[in-house]
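[Automated response] Your request has been received and processed.

Submitted sequence:
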Amino acid sequence: YQRRVHGAESTQQVMNLLLQGNRRRTTEATNANQTSSRSHAVFQIAVNSRPKTKNTHYNTLQGKLSLIDLAGSERGNVTENRGIRLQEGAKINRSLLSLANCINALGDKNKKGSFVPYRDSKLTRLLKDSLAGNCKTVM
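Generated structure:
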């Protein structure tokens, strides 16, 4: 898990960062998929806007867009992975299960206001703002 923060002033710079991050992703052939992603990718764009006046009191508008590409869940016996690849698959499955547990806890009307296990994985910690609160989420 590597979190990097970069500043961008134009859409072209944002696109370059997205392409750079995509090139850094690890993929590996398995028996189930020729180019299997071995990690999740989270690309978050934070936008801040404020008026160009000299006032010391102003409202800043903030927004955040999260683009997420999840690695697929895997069955060890189908992919026939061994060693490090098997461990990667187990970690991918664990984080996907944590994400599913958060979504289920948030969507269960009978458990309104109950505990949501965001701390169960790095993925759900990163996506906490996108899963709950004042946001719109599309899958």
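Summary generated for your ticket: The beta strands are 27-28, 36-37, 41-49, 61-69. The chain has a mean pLDDT of 80.
If you did not submit this request, please reply to this message.
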